[in-house]
Amino acid sequence: MLKTGRHRKSRPPRTRRSLRPGTESSNGTRRRGAALSANARKPEPQSKTRKRATPPQAPARVETGSGNVFADLGLPNPEEALAKAEIARRVNAILATQKISQADAARLLGISQPRVSDLSRGRLAKFSLVKLMNFAKRLGNDVKIRIQPSRNPRLEVLAARRLR
Fold first, then answer.
1. 95: closest CA among 112, 116, 110?
2. Is 0.85 surpassed by the pTM of this model?
């Protein structure tokens, strides 16, 4: 069957910019260059209130941090969160310096590409500390865990300066 012309879905009529009162013709269309008629309403003036000047505020209070932002924020398991953040930072730095795409990183790390995206965006709640250590190992790094007696027990990640 031969069709003639274009088939279009019916659309609602286009709306024009708001018109000034008195600029439309008798059939409702806009007249170009029409001046305001004498009985047309003028727009109401805007409020003439002034913005108040903000009063001077006391200087911000600065506190020295503990070295662990997660502890300073009062989050649960702050040492584990800091360790996960440091390992993830190192893994992401390795991926960036070697210019590995997320798809290739997914194959290297044994996870899906959306999970690599989560890793690069810092969504670390989806990864365990052990999983992050395995990622570092799969990228050709030694991961060492050292246990020693201490008066002040802590979980700490020490990373070598040179990236592979």
1. 116
2. no
For 159, residues 6+ apart whose C-beta sits below 8 A from its C-beta are: 86, 90
Which domain covers residue 132, as residue numbers? 69-138
**pLDDT bracket for residue 38 (50, 70, 90):** low
| Sign of the torsion angle spanned by Cα atoms 23, 26, 29, 31 | negative
d(C-alpha 111, C-alpha 129), whole Å = 15
Please state the φ and ψ torsions of residue 24, each to the nearest 5 degrees.
-100, 150
- The structure tokens listed for 147 are 């246990």
* Domain annotation covers residue 30: no
CATH number at residue 110: 1.10.260.40
- Phi/psi of residue 30, nearest 5 degrees: -80, 135
From the list 29, 31, 33, the residue with the least C-alpha distance to 14 is 29
Residue 54 lies in a domain: no
130 three-class SS: helix
Q: Say if residue 33's pLDDT is above 70.
A: no
The position carrying tokens 């279009």 is 8
CA distance 45 to 66: 56
Task: Specify the amino acid at residue 92.
Answer: N
